[in-house]
Amino acid sequence: MTRAVVIGGGIVGLTTGIALRRAGVEVVVCEQAPEIRAAGTGLGLWANALAVFDALGIGEQVRAIGKPSEMHFHDPAGKLLETPEFDAADHRYLLVHRAKLTDLLAGRVGHQNIRLGTGFHEYEEHAGGVTVRLSDGSTEEADVLVGADGAYSAVRAQLVPETRAQEHHGHQAWRAVVPADGIAVPGNRVILGTDGCRGGHVLTHDGSVYWLVNQFKSPPLTGTRKQQALERAIHLEEEPDGVLARLIGATLEELILHNQVMLVPPLPHWVSARVALAGDAAHAMSPHITAGATLGIEDAALLGHLLGTAADVAGALAAYEADRIPRYARAAELSAAVEHSPTPQEFARHYAAFSHWMITPRDAERNRVPA
Fold it and tell me: What is the pTM of this model?
């Protein structure tokens, strides 16, 4: 039986573990944190990610912890920016809570197959497989190592040296999930504002509200996280005391997450004979397209399919790389078109074009998950 070590217990690492186990591969997932926990709040899953979860047998459970939503954009006055050249399906996604999704995935991997408090140190490839040395001094012998350990991937640092995550200069993001107590939230609003600001609020499946503010070309930050978010909210609503501003104002400081957005530069390769990268470790992208997790889930599905059906691990990983690098090159082109749109209307149109491309079914055999 093929044996795999997956580094990283996030959404992509856990999904990779599920896909590999379903394909008949023995799996151990190593997570350096003392518990499986999600970084972040709300997460949008598009149709292609939901198709993977359906094939893995957990689609219904994922939908049960999510809220069907649509990605439509508005201007600061609340006017809908229409994209009539695209279908309704190009706007639909499922909003889930990251922590609940992570718990679900960990349960399906099997907690007995997850090693907590165990980070990656280094690997050594050899003719029979790969020896993985871990932070606690132990080793794991495997046929394949998958680095799903995020934008700051230690596996990538060894596989593709000098490819550290880079700042998406000036791109900052703030977000939180809060109860909507005392604030009338009219519905989902994703707003394209002035001064490089985007943001909005989305109702979650349990009645809470996920709010988000981000800015391209942000000036140097001053003040608290709440003050920083409020300073940008004025570019997103014509009303001085709009819904978004009130949601931010009602959020406890410690609940507000702030990130300098980081990117992984295009890599010359994602694999060796026994090692592969998946998810943000290979292709961390700007969250303005809300697609990083969805595309990483595709990575997991393809790894499961190829490693479960091929006798040659190196050949399977080469096929994986040949599929994914061109797909992400195109994703990067479409993402850049969104980011650099000269007007809110163009932003909305380019975003719909990106989501249409992303969810359009590809070669079914190439991306299927073993039954």
Answer: 0.90
